[in-house]
Amino acid sequence: MWFYPVNMAFATEHPVLAHSEYRPVEAMVRTGEAVEVDDVDELLAAVRHGLLSPDVGEEAVRTALSTVEGLSRNGYDLDRWLAGNGLELTWRGA
Q: How far is residue 13 from each of residues 10, 17, 25, 63, 74, measured CA to CA in Å?
């Protein structure tokens, strides 16, 4: 069994400039077994203290829930879920 933390981040594509924003919430994936969302308390605190807007907080929660749904539909297999979304990971040394 493999354990993967999946951090939520949002990126904007641009030909010259890259921009990404980290969200303090993550999905913890145990391959073939389960996924759970972690650090929601940090996300809510960031919204409460004005570090993130309520809209950004809502987007992060929706993304986390969508991630949980997608992983559960793919048997909690991170590689299969990512491949189904057009992303293929290669692991160093594999």
A: 10, 8, 22, 18, 27
Residue the block writes with tokens 């759970």: 36
pTM: 0.78
Residue 55 in this model has a pLDDT that exceeds 80: yes
Both tokens of 70, joined, read 């997608």
Question: In the sheet that 19-30 helps form, which strands lie side by side, from edge to edge?
Answer: 3-12, 19-30, 34-38
- CATH code, residues 3-85: 2.40.380.10
Residue 76: how many other CB atoms lie within 10 Å: 19
- 23 touches 44 (CB < 8 A): no
β-sheet bridge partners, residue 29 = 4, 35
Element (H, E) at 40: helix 40-48
